Structures are given as structure tokens and as C-alpha cells.
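Hypothesis: this fold can be encoded by more than one sequence.
Test: take the C-alpha cells below, design a sequence, compare later.
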């Protein structure tokens, strides 16, 4: 069983080699991501199998070249090239009768693979494996038969056994590996696509829902304005309301754009304390209404690089949520801390809090527990702005106790110059 053992060892090396190629491919290493690199792997497999052939007495060589030939020919469409390579490599081993036999066999094979490749990719994955194994078996059979006739050797059980089992086994295993990896990749792509579609769908729903409300209201007021006998002061009041509604619609679009295009456009140095004070100022009336007491604890300095508008918008959204989580009053603590490389911002409320499940959904487009009052866009915008600022967010929340948002941003270098 010398030939069989030799083949089995060769096959195990080949499979281990291919296994590592696939693992690297899965990890997305660039050099393995092109079809070209897989062609290259095929040639390496071919060369090594021919290099480490089993030499029988009488000059016959037995090797596993059928495996790279079938796999390359059917899966990569390089059958003619591989067949050509076999002939060339064989030529280097000597231009004897063996070389001409090889050429006589491999030239028709090249033609066969050239015709088969387009058909092969059209059939179903499972059938592809069976088909590849069958092609391997037939080529093996012709090879041993040819050897019997040409070398007029007595029936040699070992050669027959080796040729009829090992190449087919190898082709089966490798074809299975290829189909497996292919399916994984396809599934990954599909998942990414559905996720994107879903996000776009949800955004579309959120946008149309949110914009329709103010537009309907504005249309109503415009209709009222058409009344010729409307007193002047009423006209003014209605016009103000129309403007307010249109601005609400504009805000929703702005939110959407911030989400869709998270890239920061105008980078500047931001004084974190000043920006937060500005956000608090905007929301103070709302806090008063809800009997929320805001306390601040700012570190002396703290600068980051970012877009002022978006930074403010981010914290207005977070603070607004915090206030809204305390409809019957509470405390809101806003603090900053700065160290060598980071500026940390903490916003803690004593509001309704969130369950684990709710916490996981935080930031999903259109996720809101506020019914018609909420847009479910605020936190999504917050996450995308923080991402664009290279920051991070940590949220701790306990139902009924409150929520704490901890932000971290890289501090800008001039922090020290300003100090
Ligand atoms: P909206 O405020 O329009 O509902 P957001 O995206 O701003 O949308 O917030 C999504 C949801 O996250 C809110 O509906 C609320 O359930 C939850 N949430 C956000 N911040 C807090 C908070 N500070 N305390 C409790 N729940 C919060
Ligand atoms: Mg909100």
C-alpha cells in the first residue's frame, strides 16, 4: 500500500494548507481576497503534488495533480491553464514518452474544463460537490487505465486503490470546504444588505411620520388664514404657528441628515463646559416645567475637537431625554472630568430608568417609548455624532432609579496650551 500511504500524506498536507488559506480568507486578509490569489494557491498545490510524486520502479510517477486540476478547473475556471502547467512541469521532468502521454491526455482535458466551467457554476451547491467528485473519479480511472496499457504492467492493486479513492476523497473534502466558505460569505452579505434596507425603511417611516404631523398642522392654519374676515391679530398668531410647525419639520429633516451624514464638517476647538452650559440654557425652561433641578460639576478645563452645532445637538438630545424621564420632578447632574487624553462627560438623572431590553434598543431608529410625543431619532443621532467625534458612550440604567450616560472624548492637544 505504498502509493496509497504516499497519497494520503500528500492529501493531508494539501488540506492543512488549504484550511489555513480559508481561515485567513475568512478573516479578511487582503492578500487572500482576490480570485488571483486562489489561482495562485491552485498552482502551488499543483506544483507541490507533482514535486512530491511517488516514484515507482520503471519510471512511472504517481501524484495527486488531479485534485488541483479538477478544483481549479471547475471552481476557478482555470482548467486549461492548470492543464498547460501540468504539461510544462512535466516537460521539465524530461521530454520522454511520459511527457507525450501527459500532453495527449491533458490537452483534451483542457478543452473539457474550458467547456464545463460555465455550466458548473450554474448547478446547485450539493450537486456541484457530487459532480466534481465524479469528474475526479473518471479522470483517475482513465489515468490508471492508461498506465496499465502503456506500461503494460500487471494489475497493480495498490495503484488502482490509491487512484480510485484518494483524489476523489480530496476533491470531495475541498469542494465541501469551498461550498461551506462560499455560503458563509453569501449569508454575511445578505445579512448586511437586509440590515441596511431595514434601517433605510425605518428611517423613511420615521421621517414621513414625523414630517407629516407638522405639515398637516401647517396646512390647517393656512386654510384658516384664507378667511377674509380674520382679524389681524389672529392672522399673526396663525402665521406664527405655521412657522413653528414648519420649523419642527425642518428639525426632523436635520436630525435625519445628521444621522445619514455623520461626518463632521467644520472641526473646531470646543470648550466642553461652555457648550454644555449652552445646551442647559436651551433646556432650562423645560426642566423648570418638569420641576427638574439641574446641578453641574465641571472640571476647570476640557477641550475637544468637533463641530459645535452637532456637539450641542448631541447633548441637547441627551439632556432632553433625561428631563423627559422625570415627568414628576427629579435631579439632573451634569459633570465633566478631564485627564491627560480624555474628556469625560457624565449626565445622570433620577428618572424612570430603562430595562435591559430597552437599553439594548437605545439608539435604534424609531425606537421610542413616548408614543406620539417621541421621534425615536434623538439617541440615534447622539450615537452617530459621538462616533464621528471618536468618542464613546456607556449607559447604566436601573428601572425606577435613573439613568447615567458616560461619554468619553479624546481631548484636543491645545488643552495644555490653554492651561
Ligand atoms: P424619543 O426621545 O423621541 O423617544 P430618543 O431616541 O431620544 O427618542 O430616545 C429613545 C428612547 O430611549 C426613549 O423613548 C426612552 O424610552 C429611552 N430613553 C432615552 N434616554 C432616557 C433616559 N435618560 N431615561 C430613561 N429612558 C430614556
Ligand atoms: Mg429624545
Amino acid at each position: 500500500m505504498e502509493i496509497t500511504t504516499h497519497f494520503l500524506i500528500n492529501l493531508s498536507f494539501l488540506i492543512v494548507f488549504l484550511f489555513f488559506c480559508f481561515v485567513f480568507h475568512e478573516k479578511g486578509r487582503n492578500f487572500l481576497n482576490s480570485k488571483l490569489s486562489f489561482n495562485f494557491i491552485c498552482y502551488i498545490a499543483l506544483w507541490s503534488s507533482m514535486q512530491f510524486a511517488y516514484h515507482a520502479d520503471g519510471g512511472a510517477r504517481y501524484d495527486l495533480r488531479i485534485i488541483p486540476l479538477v478544483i481549479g478547473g471547475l471552481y476557478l475556471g482555470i482548467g486549461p491553464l492548470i492543464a498547460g502547467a501540468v504539461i510544462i512541469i512535466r516537460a521539465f521532468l524530461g521530454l520522454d514518452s511520459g511527457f507525450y502521454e501527459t500532453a495527449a491526455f491533458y490537452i483534451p482535458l483542457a478543452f473539457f474544463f474550458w467547456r464545463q466551467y460555465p455550466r458548473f457554476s450554474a448547478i446547485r451547491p450539493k450537486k456541484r460537490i457530487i459532480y466534481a467528485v465524479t469528474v475526479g473519479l473518471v479522470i483517475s480511472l482513465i489515468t490508471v487505465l492508461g498506465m496499465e496499457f502503456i506500461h503494460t504492467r500487471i494489475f497493480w492493486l495498490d495503484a488502482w486503490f490509491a487512484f480510485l479513492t484518494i483524489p476523489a476523497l480530496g476533491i470531495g473534502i475541498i469542494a465541501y470546504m469551498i461550498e461551506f466558505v462560499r455560503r458563509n460569505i453569501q449569508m454575511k452579505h445578505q445579512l448586511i444588505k437586509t440590515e441596511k434596507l431595514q434601517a433605510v425603511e425605518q428611517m423613511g417611516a420615521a421621517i414621513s411620520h414625523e414630517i407629516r404631523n407638522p405639515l398637516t398642522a401647517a396646512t390647517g392654519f393656512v386654510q384658516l388664514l384664507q378667511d377674509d374676515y380674520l382679524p389681524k391679530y389672529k392672522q399673526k398668531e396663525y402665521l406664527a404657528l405655521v412657522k413653528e410647525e414648519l420649523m419642527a419639520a425642518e428639525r426632523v429633516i436635520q436630525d435625519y441628515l445628521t444621522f445619514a451624514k455623520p461626518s463632521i464638517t467644520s472641526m473646531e476647538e470646543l470648550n466642553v463646559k461652555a457648550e454644555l452650559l449652552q445646551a442647559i440654557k436651551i433646556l432650562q425652561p423645560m426642566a423648570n416645567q418638569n420641576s427638574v433641578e439641574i446641578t453641574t460639576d465641571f472640571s476647570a478645563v476640557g477641550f475637544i475637537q468637533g463641530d459645535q452645532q452637532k456637539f450641542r445637538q448631541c447633548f441637547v438630545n441627551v439632556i432632553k431625554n433625561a428631563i423627559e424621564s422625570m415627568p414628576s420632578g427629579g435631579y439632573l447632574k451634569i459633570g465633566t472630568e478631564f485627564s491627560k487624553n480624555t474628556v469625560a462627560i457624565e449626565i445622570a438623572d433620577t428618572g424612570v430608568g430603562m430595562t435591559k431590553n430597552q437599553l439594548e434598543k437605545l439608539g435604534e431608529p424609531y425606537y421610542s417609548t413616548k408614543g406620539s410625543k417621541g421621534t425615536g431619532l434623538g439617541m440615534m443621532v447622539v450615537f452617530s455624532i459621538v462616533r464621528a467625534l471618536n468618542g464613546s458612550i456607556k449607559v447604566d440604567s436601573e428601572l425606577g432609579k435613573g439613568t447615567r450616560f458616560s461619554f468619553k472624548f479624546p481631548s484636543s492637544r491645545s488643552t495644555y496650551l490653554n492651561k
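The first helix runs from residue 2 to 26. Residues 88 and 94 are 10 Å apart (CA to CA).
Hypothesis status: open.
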